[in-house]
Design a protein that fits this description.
By secondary structure, this protein is mainly beta. The protein has a 19-stranded mixed β-sheet that branches. Strands 4-7-9-11-13-15-18-21-24 form a 9-stranded parallel β-sheet. A hairpin with a 2-residue loop joins strand 27 and strand 28. The longest helix has 9 residues. The radius of gyration is 26 Å and the shape is elongated.
Length: 370
């Protein structure tokens, strides 16, 4: 066939088991050649011309689980790592089926996944290199879930690309009983009551230099898990729903409280900045620049529905533009930072300042230094 048809072949040139399983004691071999040449009837019009593009030939393979020399264990290779380039939904889903600890996937091109879960379950040290490509995943749930168990945690690293949650898909990345790291990723979500990042009980997600855009919904929620933010830009817009904030914490199943740690982040929200939901949790902000239309720092706690819950916001630095709304059951401890348009009198603001820190006021802007 033609080069273009080969490049657009969703099943690949030799999809499936290229190496045939032989009978017992047999050593099988298979050879495949790709011969590239001009069409014989091209004529002289193409003299001195080029194809005008470059292309790669990717060979993706995984080791067969069957081994004759398995020392009385013919499945000893079943956990062999997978190193595979995936370029469409079928290849991605097949790769997930054969994932082992230490597997590495690379996106060969932009791809879309519709109606299918993309799950990494109880596998450790899985790497997905987006290779500066975009994955648009629409499954009415969470685009990519990394889930382990209390017996075996999962772990995954996602690098260098764009992950988009389709309309109706509530989250781009989720973690439960797992450790997930995102480096240099762009995240987008457009579903009401959704968010870009969600960490469930036992889950820990670390975000390094992330750009998150949330139209409706919010940026990130530590729903009983932990989220660590190191740099990046978060934007939230659209009409308000209860997730419409840059970052929030809540209580997860089993009574674990979410924890959100923020460093060097820039965040802008049309609604709320950082929010302790009524079930409780802790937000620690160390540095960054934040603004919000409704309130930049907000905490609610409903002890009648969540007895024993605690809601805490600790601020160690940063610049904040927006109202501060903390109910009397929650704690706000400000060690350092600059705060404007808080909606608070100087007397009320000082009640939130940590012991040993000093406040200066210029044109209704509060500056706190430890």
């Amino acid at each position: 066939g033609t080069l273009s048809s080969l490049m657009n072949d969703n099943d690949g040139a030799a999809y499936g088991e290229l190496y045939p399983i032989g009978t017992e004691g047999q050593q099988n071999q298979a050879y495949v050649a790709v011969a590239l040449h001009m069409q014989e009837g091209a004529g002289n019009d193409y003299q001195n011309e080029s194809i005008g593009t470059t292309f790669d030939i990717n060979l993706s393979a995984t080791q067969m689980t069957y081994e004759k020399d398995g020392f009385d264990n013919d499945k000893y290779d079943e956990d062999a790592t997978l190193n595979m380039v995936v370029s469409d939904q079928a290849e991605l889903l097949e790769a997930l089926e054969y994932l082992g600890d230490g597997s590495r996937l690379t996106l060969g091109r932009d791809l879309s996944v519709n109606g299918e879960d993309v799950d990494i379950r109880s596998k450790e040290n899985v790497h997905i290199d987006f290779n500066n490509k975009t994955a648009n995943i629409d499954n009415n749930n969470i685009s990519i879930r990394v889930n382990g168990t209390s017996e075996k945690r999962a772990s995954a690293v996602l690098n260098n690309g764009t992950l988009i949650a389709g309309d109706g898909t509530y989250c781009t990345i989720g973690s439960g009983y797992s450790d997930v790291v995102l480096n240099n990723m762009i995240l987008k979500n457009t579903t009401a009551y959704g968010c870009s990042v969600k960490s469930f009980p036992g889950g820990q997600i670390t975000l390094n230099n992330i750009t998150s855009t949330s139209e409706l919904g919010g940026g990130m929620t530590a729903a009983g898990g932990i989220i660590n933010v190191n740099g990046g830009n978060f934007t939230q817009s659209g009409s308000y729903d209860h997730n419409s904030c840059l970052g929030s914490v809540s209580q997860g199943k089993g009574g674990s409280f979410g924890v959100l740690n923020v460093r060097n982040m820039v965040g802008e929200s049309e609604n709320y900045g950082f929010y302790v939901f009524c079930s409780g949790g802790t937000i620690n902000i160390y540095s960054g620049n934040f603004s919000a239309g409704k309130a930049v720092l907000k905490a609610d706690l409903d002890l009648s529905s969540y007895p024993g819950a605690k809601g805490i916001i600790n601020v160690y630095g940063g610049t904040f533009d927006g109202r501060i709304e903390i109910n009397d059951k929650c704690a706000l401890n400000i060690k350092a930072g600059t705060f404007s348009n808080t909606g608070l009198t100087e007397e009320k603001f000082k009640k939130y300042v940590a012991e040993g820190s000093k406040v200066t006021v210029v044109n209704d802007v509060f500056t706190v230094n430890d």
